[in-house]
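Example 3.2
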Amino acid sequence: MEYSSGKKAQRRCAICAAVLLCACAILNSYTRAEAAAAPTVPVGAQYDSTHVYLATPAALDAFVKSFVATFGGKPAARITANVLPVPSSTIFQAVLAPVGILSVFAYQTPVPYPFGLERTGYLVTDMDQALKAARAAGAEVIVEKFKDALGYDAVIQWPGGVKMQLYWHFTPPSYAPLETIPDNRVYVSPDAADIFARSFIRFSRGKVVADEKQADAGEIGRRGATYRRIDVESDFGKMRVLVSDGHLPYPYGYELTGYEVKDLAATLALATAAGAKILAPTFDGRDRSTAIMQFPGGYIAEIHALRKQ
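Structure, written as tokens:
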């Protein structure tokens, strides 16, 4: 009887594993077929930025100094301009760090809707082609193409409500590759997870590199529970799709980007010395150790170091 029960348990495990493998294969085969017909629009991970909207212009100096002291790199020239298709004024500064790029906005006027809700800016090879590809993949164009001093911009929204900005520049920039590629951390519901992943992969011509149905939810502040985590890679960089029921303790869900560093403890020490504060202490997961920080001005980020397997 014990032997028979053991065989049944083994069979159930084998069936579950087969179902998971089949689901991942279906997702990848579908997206590969769709991607083959889609245009290539990404330029590279070193050209994609996290959009940081500071609470006040007075916070700009402290934020930039803190971020650079933590991760290295340098700020670009600071300008004051209208970068939107409607009247507005912002102090703008890009920060070029070896772990990822920031587009920092410190508005002197109210921020027109829906700006401030987009999480990232992706540089594309051709704006018209990119918008066509985004629509074909299931995205909405919620801000039509508009011109600024550098080129053209637009804002799109994916199934699940994920918003991002697309850029195209008159003069293509030239940046060195990043030392580590950050995670674009996207929280979606179970209802939207698969359609979001399929849509974004079709657009980016990327692939699913991992789809864990029972990942340790301690990574999102839910110790003792599990959740689904989908890792996607494309020429835009890395994306970590965190499939959540919405029962998230603060500050999880507010972080837009996860930065990979070699030594997490040393980086956290640099950050706190530079005025940042730890919102979620270090959690040691199976493959990485992670923490959540808040920098002066309010920007919240995840920082992680990979663990030796």
